[in-house]
Amino acid sequence: MVRDAQIDPITRQYVHLDFIRVMKGQRLKVEVPIVLEGESEGVKVGGFLDWVGRSLHVECPAEEIPQSFHVDISNLQLSQHLTAADIALPPSAKLADDPHKVIVTIAVPHVKAEEEEKAAEEAAAAATAEEVTEPEVIKRGKAVAEEGEEAE
Questions:
Q1: Residue 129: pLDDT above 70?
Q2: Contacts of 99 (CB under 8 A, 6+ apart)
Q3: Going along the chain, which residue ranges are E strands?
Q4: Average pLDDT of span 13-22
Q5: Minimal CA–CA distance to 81: which of 49, 114, 129, 126?
Q6: Where are the domains positioned within the chain?
């Protein structure tokens, strides 16, 4: 079984591989990728998908290591999330990660139309307040004579 692989970033060829010997029935801790399926109801109404955890660490027999976990997210609504404990594991596998680890969350957009208008009004009010409270700038150098006076 491959433990580690080093790949050349330019040629994309293997530079080094580490193997381990595995006996039948031996339990291993492995990292298994998560594949999301479906489109969330929360995304359809304006939320956005935040995919936090892309893999799970599980402990299972060497001959029963899953290729990936397929997770259906079509029932997730706004502000709902999916944790590691919510993913169905094979009967022989045991979760090695924290069961409260968040895998996917459907986030609510923070700024709404009313809040945008309110923020724009506050910004305009702040801009006019800045104009009023600006200090007077004093110029350096000789003062220019006014029209009625003669320069010395």
A1: no
A2: 83, 84, 85
A3: 2-7, 14-19, 27-37, 48-51, 55-61, 69-72, 81-83, 94-95, 102-107
A4: 93
A5: 49
A6: 27-130
Centroid of chain to Cα 64: 31
Provide the pairing of β-strand 81-83 with 48-51.
Answer: unpaired
Strand-pair category, 69-72 with 27-37? parallel
Please compute the mean of the pLDDT values over residues 91-108 and round it to a whole number.
92
Residues 6 or more apart whose Cβ sits within 8 Å of residue 31: 55, 56, 57
Match domain 27-130 to its CATH number in 2.170.120.20, 3.30.230.10, 3.30.365.10, 3.40.30.10.
2.170.120.20
